[in-house]
From TrEMBL:
Membrane disposition: Multi-pass membrane protein
Major localization class: membrane
InterPro entries: Cyt_b561_bac/Ni-Hgenase, Cytochrome_b561_oxidase, Di-haem_cyt_TM
Name the record gives this protein: Cytochrome b561
Record localization: Cell membrane
Name of the coding gene: cybB
Length: 176
């Protein structure tokens, strides 16, 4: 039995991690740039979101084929249950956030860009839908800070306090 996730799973995990950082930074720091740079910053944010969505769906499909390697030593059932809940929240968050963002951008009714390409949009704007989706998008993004923090804290707790292999299962292989 494997003691680590597959190379593909590890790569997707850390790539999503980096894309999440860039997406969050694009929104958090956009006020530091001149207004003329906003379209580029928005495009970076949207492009990261689309990439995260594709990678999370891929990761979910790969996870169905390659289940998680066992944690050694095995934690208490309660911790395993909390781990499953945490991972479910992460999958839901990073699939729902980009989907909500995409539907929101579409309903603005004007040209928007991802990866430098103009994306399709509704013939007419629907700002009731846009405002509702934006509030959900912002709320979930703020919840993301909390969920990501708990996820990272739990990984460190497993590694340094319980001294199991939870964190090591997701670390890239060392080159010899």
């Amino acid at each position: 039995m494997r003691n680590k996730y597959t190379g593909l799973q590890i790569s997707i995990h850390w790539l999503v991690f980096l894309l999440v950082i860039v997406a969050y930074c694009a929104m958090e720091f956009r006020g530091l740039f001149p207004r003329s740079a906003r379209p580029v910053i928005n495009m970076v944010h949207v492009s990261c979101g689309i990439s995260i969505l594709v990678l999370m769906v891929t990761r979910l499909l790969v996870r169905l084929k390659y289940p998680a390697p066992p944690i050694v030593p095995k934690p208490k059932s309660m911790y395993i249950g909390l781990s499953h809940l945490g991972h479910l929240l992460i999958y839901l968050l990073f699939i729902a956030l980009p989907l909500i963002g995409l539907v929101m951008m579409y309903n603005r009714g004007n040209t928007w860009f991802a990866f430098g390409l103009g994306m399709p949009h509704a013939a007419e704007s629907n700002f009731e839908v846009v405002d509702l989706l934006k509030s959900w998008h912002v709320t979930l993004a703020k919840a993301g800070y909390f969920i990501i923090g708990i996820h990272a804290f739990a990984a460190l707790l497993h590694h340094y306090y319980w001294k199991d292999n939870t964190l090591l299962r997701m670390m890239p292989k060392k080159r010899s």
